[in-house]
Amino acid sequence: MPSRPLIIGHRGACGYRAENSLASAALAHAQGADFIELDVVLSRDNALVVCHDLHLDELTLAAARFPGRQRADGLTYVLDLDWAELRTLSIGPRQPGPAPRAHPSEPLATLDEHLDQLAALNRAAGRTVQLYLELKSPAWHAAAGRDLAATTLACLARHSLSRADDPVIVESFDPAVLKRLRTDFKTALRLTQLLGENAWNEAACDYDRMRTPDGLRAIATYASAVAINLDRLLPEVDGTAFVTAAHAARLAVHGYTFRTDALPKGFPTADAALHALLDETGLDGLFTDQPDAVAAFLKKRA
Prior knowledge:
alpha/beta, 33% helix, 8-stranded parallel beta barrel, two-stranded antiparallel ribbon, 12 helices, TIM Barrel
């Protein structure tokens, strides 16, 4: 386990810059993040696009830019556009949302572009900030005849990222794709099992069972960490029992997502919530939209 909790910049520093953009990732690096978390999906021409959603409509003006390219549900999907088209779009504030943010718009970027930028920032700073990469909806891609896992592994390999000690973790809500990475592809990369809620329909699995001690031991056969919703840890639920069970299974525990503009219920300040999460619950890492806030807390605690 790390000597101090890891700071994981959620979609970069998306509390300040457009999520998953190069600018957001660069700011997270500057704010002291240990990891930069990004999401990846595929375009029509198989480019790995860094985007959280399968569709573009909450983040871009894709519908206006590409009229007539929407599916029956009225949405414009990344998979239906080539990268040459996607690169003309800018990511803006997520709408709708509980607290819309007035970020400047930033261009969409590919995983290759993010990897190149991260390597350059690491060289300039003289420290290694790592990548935390989520495979978004791999089963949905597979149903469309696409192999998100294989395409992602090939991209990472081009950047010399394939070993257990390389600075990248791959995560997914879908246990099937993580097991496939470990058994079929025999990847040595570190893997994290994201634990969601069954109502989210993220994957064909039972997250309630996966959170049990038996479920955690099963996860440990293919992953080295789990990531869990902060609502499962604070405040009504005693998260220490879950963290203890995960540690007993030799799994690190990372919590998502800490926001200073949307604190966990019952905590008047960011520091109070961070104390509960990191000092009392014992998380090994924290996904956050504001890496600077977590870095400042850990600096005061040191």
